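DM between two lab members

TW: hey, do you still have the alpha-1,2-Mannosidase entry open?
JB: yeah, one sec
JB: this one, 556 aa:
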Amino acid sequence: MARIRSSSSSSKFRYCNPSYYLKRPKRLALLLILFVSASSFVWDRQTLVREHEFEVSKLNDEVRRLQNMLEEFTNRVPANVPIEMQRREKVKEAMIHAWSAYEKYAWGNDELLPQTQSGENSFGGLGATIIDSLDTLLIMGLDEQFQKAREWVANTLDFNKTYDASVFETTIRVVGGLLSTYDLSGDNIFLEKARDIADRLLPAWDTPSGIPYNIIDLAHGNAHNPGWTGGDSILADSGTEQLEFIALSQRTGDPKYQEKVEKAIVALNKTFPADGLVPIYVNPNDGTAYGTITFGAMVYCSFYEYLLKAWIQGNKTSSVKPYRDMWETSMKGLVSLIRRSSPSSFAYICEKTRETLTDKMDELACFAPGMLALGSSGYGKVEAKKILSLAEELAWTCYNFYQSTHTKLSGENYLFNPGRDMSVGTTWNILRPETVESLFYLWRLTGNVTYQEWGWNIFQAFEKNCRIESGYVGLTDVNLALKDNKMQTFFLAETLKYLYLLFSPPTVIPLDEWVFNTEAHPLRIVNRNDNIAGSERQHKPTVGLQGRKTGRFGGN
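TW: and the structure you got?
JB:
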């Protein structure tokens, strides 16, 4: 039995014995064919898997490459586009970023608080950022954003508020913003709203001298001055409403607005000093003035600026020549305040108290180079050259306010000491526009591209230090780059607008057809007609739509 089992077991494993196949060549050949076929099948499957994985990897790389290209295309104009257009598009993108953040986190509020992603009503809940930004959106060709803002103005904006409003701030931001948008669009809703708020401000001028009170309750018309002034008015707050109210009379045919604001200038002219330098405090009863003389805080780019611009707004006719005469007198006074630092000879504008000069200049005073350049053409050839040269010197100083700090952003004011040139005094930066405003005017009036380069450097510093995911913020310290929590309305109304125009052709809001108010709202220049009641109330929009990349162009 044992032999039988052994034989049976051996027969089962004979196919595993090589000698079995050596004796049978055909079966050996068949086995080899089967082995090769199976190996090829397995190898092919592995190769296909590896090739598939490789193709998938290539496709993923291509997707990532296309995503990067799309992002770069979104954020950067192609390299063959002129540098001015590239820079203009960058500024436009900054406006979109600022506006989108406001729209997302603070819509309807006066200002955005970017770090806390919330809104704040610092102007009584008038939607100040919306109104201040309207004409910027139009000029940049941001139609979708403008239409949403327009609907808010038409359906939500309400001035009937028990709120003590600043006559100055409400005039330059709200009246100016609405009138500018009316001039650019021809949409009557903006003129109607401008008239509504102006009527609420008018009782502020009901004083013995015609010098307005600086604060007024919008709902009840109760006007007064802030307690800290001792009952007096502030020069800037009293002499910076002429452009807006004269324009409103021209557009509506109602002379009352022009009459109110020009009465204030008549009162100031009665006590106008020989050097044209008016102190900051003005008595609303008799028009007398006292205090420090400065081109910075509480006067800065308003009273003196509006003397010049009222002359331009009136088309430089004889009826507005008294404005020009007052301005030229004041510019002689300004020249008397000029000193130069050592060792670099930076020109700067001192402050004056009685007969004492203080070697301090605010960044706010950096509107002066642009004002001087704009007014230089009204002089004779020799004097015009001197005034323009001074404007260029002061612009160099203001640019160095920026270049002298760690962030390349200006502090609020600067001190000048012998042998040390300048040093930053108050260290904050709240996104102010005055320096880029002057660079815009100097570039427009001289054609010198250096001013474009300086403006671009300032813009890049804002982008590097002030841009965050939820908007733009100022700095509490320009050397330490410490951020605050507010996006000022004038950053959208002025700073970004002037930067955009700095890189736009001169045909965009041409200076012979438009005059900017002190909040950078352009108002159309029309022939002055002191018989206001006969003026034309309606007009067509004077800005035509061009390509999206260039925004809207003025002129015919």
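TW: got it. Residues 84-524 form a domain with the Glycosyltransferase fold (CATH 1.50.10.10). The first strand starts at residue 111 and ends at 113.
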